[in-house]
Write a structure and sequence with these properties.
4-stranded antiparallel β-sheet
Length: 170
């Protein structure tokens, strides 16, 4: 009786495994981040695309590891760049919103009242101004509210002195 050694993994299967090993964590990170950038309903769609796309790629591997690798790369290209852009935007807009909060507190320290508007505020990155939904003076919430969105206007992040940073996903 001879002991047959296990067959070594073919190169095309190794490339598929490495591709999935590289892309799946990135895709999962993007799907998780979609909760804060797009909202909980859209996050479900992103998770569905990640799972369905990669299950399809793995099923395709039964017939062709090369085709499966191409499918896995296409899934990654469809998901990762867009969501990495949203993650970056979230970071930039959140930073700008934090600067607005600091501006409001500084104005209160100088004048005794929170500003009524952002007229005296200079954006560090003027391009993110379109994502700041509003700023308003409001005593009910502790003096003011600044609200912003990242991927969709129905998913809002905001700050109030009473509540701190908050988020509504849809």
């Amino acid at each position: 009786m001879t002991d047959a050694a296990p067959k070594p993994m073919r190169a095309d299967r190794k490339i598929l495994a490495l591709t999935l090993l590289a892309l799946l964590p990135l895709e999962a990170l993007c799907a998780q981040a979609a909760f804060h950038t797009l909202g909980e309903v859209d996050q479900i769609g992103v998770w569905f695309a990640v799972v369905a796309g990669n299950v399809f790629a793995l099923a395709l591997a039964v017939f062709s590891a090369r085709a499966a690798t191409i499918a896995a790369i296409l899934v990654g290209v469809a998901i990762v760049p867009y969501h990495v852009g949203l993650i970056r935007r979230h970071s930039l807009v959140r930073h700008e919103a934090s600067r607005i909060v600091a501006f409001a507190y500084e104005a209160k320290a100088e004048t005794g009242a929170f500003p009524e508007s952002l007229d005296g505020y200079a954006y560090e990155r003027p391009g993110v101004a379109r994502y700041v939904q509003h700023y308003r003076a409001d005593e009910e919430v502790g003096g003011f509210c600044v609200m912003y969105f990242v991927g969709t206007p129905t998913t809002s992040h905001w700050y109030t002195p009473k509540g701190g940073w908050q988020y509504y996903p849809d």
